[in-house]
Input
Amino acid sequence: MSVFSRFMDIVNSNINSILDKAEDPEKMIKLMIMEMEDTLIELKTSCASSIASEKKAEKKINEIESAISRWQSRAMLAIEKHREDLAKDALLEKKKLTASLEKEKQELNSIKEIVRVSKDEISQVEDKLRSVNNKYTLMKERTKRAEEEKKAQDILNKTNNTNFDFMEDRINRMEAMNDLDSVYDDLDKKFKDLEGMDDIDKELAELRKKLEK
Output
């Protein structure tokens, strides 16, 4: 795929739509970032080459303009020296260089337009890349929060299902033991009361015997 085709695909792409349809959005967005970065490198390389051509063309134009000026001066010198033949030759050279100058200026304008378009394309891809990177950052933050929330929920569930259940069971056992102790103490008290009543009955029996005598 050419750089231009990839550039148009990137600029016209609907990131949200692509991610909604992707089975693995994070993987898809990573691939998009890599593709954009590769395209950006190629666009910048192409633009740098065009800028180099632009500078070369400007240098050549300056050289031709200097040569035209030089042949103009020579034509004037030949006229002053009454050498119309040399003046004519100088003007012919100037004419050739003037035609070449127009051609180079047209070429320079074409190169300048290529550089302008390249810079505009680079700017658009950089904007798109920033947008995708921002979405990727938000996606990672959401994934991280979701993982942290899941981890916290797992800990809470484990605590609810294990520690609290264990503590509740232990409390229930302690309460049951207390209830048993209470029943035992109550039964013990009743038997002690009965044992105390035997002593009282004996003492009453002795008192009756004494009264009968």
Notes: The chain has one domain: 3-168. The helical segments are 3-12, 15-21, 25-80, 84-212. The CA atoms of residues 8 and 146 lie 35 Å apart.
